[in-house]
Each structure stands twice: as structure tokens, then as C-alpha cells.
Specification:
By secondary structure, this protein is of the alpha+beta class. It is built from 1 helix and 6 strands; from the N terminus they run ββββββα.
């Protein structure tokens, strides 16, 4: 399995060669898009990152990897500022 790479400035996570756009929905809740099409949602609840796919194009494991990468990078940036 490859490593997810987050770019907070661009609001993207790259995973398995796909660029996922991250769109803010609310506090700790984001929609994940691929070329404008919803791939799922990522949320941070009860101290854990979770990914929920929309449809069967991307797996729960993929969305989980995206969530872990996004929230880890976001929290590190918040602690640094």
C-alpha cells in the first residue's frame, strides 16, 4: 500500500496516483472529490480519523488513509502556528 501525501495549501491528498481534492463541510468534516466527483467523506470524531466512501469506486481503506494523512497534517500545522 502506498503512502498518502497531503498538501494543505492546495487542499489535496495524493494516494495511489490519484489526487483527491478536500472540501470543507464543517468542523472536522470534509468531502473528498476526484475531478469534481464525490469519492466519500472524511471525519474526525472521538479522537480518530474515519473515511466513508461514496459508492464502490474507492474503498474504505483508501478513504481511511486519506483521512489519516489529512488530519495528521492539519493538526501538525495547527500546533506549529
Amino acid at each position: 500500500m502506498s503512502t498518502a501525501v497531503t498538501d494543505l495549501a492546495a487542499k489535496t491528498v495524493t494516494f495511489d496516483g490519484t489526487i483527491f481534492d478536500i472540501q470543507d463541510l464543517g468542523e472536522d468534516t470534509y468531502t473528498v472529490l476526484v475531478k469534481g466527483v464525490p469519492a466519500g467523506r472524511i471525519v474526525f470524531t472521538w479522537g480518530a480519523a474515519n473515511g466513508v466512501p461514496e459508492g464502490d469506486t474507492y474503498s474504505e481503506d483508501t478513504l481511511y488513509a486519506i483521512a489519516e494523512s489529512w488530519f495528521t497534517a492539519r493538526d501538525a500545522a495547527n500546533e506549529a502556528s
